[in-house]
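DM from R.C. (forwarded with permission)

"hey, sorry to bug you on a friday — could you get me a structure for this? deadline for the figure draft is monday and I only need the backbone to look sensible"
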Amino acid sequence: MHIVVVGGGVVGITTARELVRRGHQVTVLERHPLAGNETSKANAAQRSYGVVYPWADPSMVLKALPWLLQQDGPLKMRMPPSVAAIRFMFATLRYAWSPGLFGFNKRAMLRLGAYSRERFLALEQEHNLAFDGGHNGLLTLASTPEALDDLRETHKLLNEMGVASRMLSPQQVREAEPGMAAGAPLYGALSYDTDGTGDCHLFSRELSKVCEDLGVHFRYEVEAEALLADHQRVNAVQLRRTDGNSEILEADAFVVSAGCWSPELVKSLGLTLPIYPVKGYSITVPLSDPDKAPASTIHDDNFKVVSTRLGNRLRATGFVELADFNRDIPAARIATIKKSVRSRYPGCADLDAAETWTGFRPMTPDGPAIIGRGPRDNLFLNTGHGTFGWTLAAGSAAVIAQVIDGEEPAVVLDAFRPGRFSGDL
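My reply, with the result:
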């Protein structure tokens, strides 16, 4: 069966690999000149299988508004907000206040996270990929007693779900992270012992080469403009090439993995995907003193910034910003990320020489990704992973391949079903 995958980010590439290994003929369409060059390019670099959680978190609702007013607050909104941003915020609030939904979705995401870890380990064992990857764990720090209490509650849920984790004392944190400064506030941490790291952009490029060797055909610098369908099936995708000319590409089945650009492709088919481009920022810089740098991934709750060791580099990311597709990088955002790194790991790198980046996380208002069969018999979706595309890529790729081949998926997909947003604001 010839299957077209729309989107050459980490989710689309891992999907292509799963499909070609199952004997399908696969074509990947990507508007950039290479794989993993949009949201996958410079993300947080953490594969946080045990950290996954829904965006619509009721415990965060009361914290969100004060964050908007704080200079270093992790939540920002471009003023005046767009209609799309307001609609997304109201939909998120509605899901956050829906009784029992947060717990249901979080457990579903944790199950997919655990499966994704299994699939990543199998993938890395099969292919020798150079992407500064590892599975050395992740630490979420507690800078206040209240934060430590929250981590204890999370630890209970992880134990219930069978996810490996430990509560660490400040001394144990220092032992695990000898480069961490002693002066910053620290009451303890939650260790996600089996979580991973890795450069998502390098991984996507490396895996795309593997896919090519397996027979996947990549079409770069082409824009998927429309899915051409009747009432039962999608027959083709209309492409726009860089020379401005259009092209019609027929196939037996289609997978939409286009991140924030997925909604427009399926709107004409009657499917609403309220995916919003939640903006984030990162810096990447070579380490000048590796002994003063993180050993793996550190989530600093004080600034809500994640710092990750990538070989001889440091990647630090932060902020959740509602600014539509604005690509500006305000100096204040980068200053806050640098402030977090300096507070925990002073002297590890020349942060003034850091490369800056911004990207758009394809976020759903309730939190889970969109995985499953679409409104036509041969249309499938694997998109909307939000901040966890890198984390969930291998698992969701395996699951959608199982669905396409008519198998029972390894993870129950009730929380991820594409049609769940019918009737949304």
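R.C.: lifesaver. The chain is about 35% helix and 25% strand.
me: no worries. The longest helix spans residues 101-126.
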